[in-house]
Each structure stands twice: as structure tokens, then as C-alpha cells.
Specification:
126 residues; mainly alpha; Transcription Factor, Stat-4; 0% strand; globular
């Protein structure tokens, strides 16, 4: 979560670049915000390797965490839009499961868009 907190405190010009990075990525910024600690603790580089079973495992974990987060939100107006956006993100992510290009390719694409490190997580552990 420390990385995400740093991102949020960047100068406006840099924040615009962050918004551009997330504009075309299948993982919306709202999901990055809600699952920041978990996302930053994963090995995304391993998930981007060809034929990686790690990608599939992370994908299913991501969906489960989204479900948990959705279940923990209240019923008030302040959570209405957040719930809507998270539900939409979950549906969009689920559609990747049947996409022709597969999950490892999706991870790789996201990593490439951010200059070699994942736009939403660690650069990878060694």
C-alpha cells in the first residue's frame, strides 16, 4: 500500500500520467485503490511468464478479494458508487477468463504499459 500512497501524493503532472496508465488497463484504478496492499505484495513478473499457472492463481485470488471487499461495504450512499464500480470491474475481469489471449498475456501487457514494472504492483521478487 505504500507504493499506492506515494502515487497519490505525486505532482499533478505525474498524476495525469497515472490516469493515462490506468485508462486502458483492464484493472481499474478503483480496484488498485481497494486492494493496494495485496497487489503490492504479489509477484507479478512471475505471473507474466508464458504458460504461468501463477497468473491464474493470482487472477482467482483477485476475484475472491474483490468479492470479500464488496461484501464488507455498507449500504449507505457513500458506498453506492464504489460498489457499482467494483462490481463492473469484477464482471470485466471475469470476461478475461474466456478471452483468447489468456491471462499471462494480459499480465505482460499491463507490465509493458508501465515501463517494465506492473502498473499496479511490484516489479517482481528475485
Amino acid at each position: 500500500m505504500a507504493q499506492w500512497q506515494e502515487v497519490q501524493s505525486l505532482a499533478n503532472a505525474c498524476l495525469e500520467r497515472v490516469h493515462q496508465l490506468y485508462a486502458g488497463v483492464a484493472l481499474p484504478m478503483v480496484v488498485r485503490q481497494c486492494l493496494a496492499a495485496w497487489i503490492e505484495d504479489q509477484n507479478w513478473r512471475q505471473a507474466a511468464e508464458p504458460l504461468s499457472s501463477h497468473a491464474r492463481m493470482l487472477f482467482h485470488s483477485l476475484l475472491a478479494l474483490l468479492d470479500n471487499h464488496l461484501g464488507s461495504l455498507g449500504v449507505g450512499d457513500e458506498d453506492f458508487m464504489l460498489k457499482h464500480n467494483l462490481r463492473k470491474a469484477r464482471r470485466d475481469l471475469q470476461s478475461l477468463r474466456s478471452a483468447r489471449r489468456g491471462l499471462p498475456t494480459w499480465w505482460t501487457t499491463c507490465c509493458r504499459r508501465s515501463g517494465g514494472s506492473c502498473a499496479w504492483g511490484r516489479r517482481g521478487r528475485r
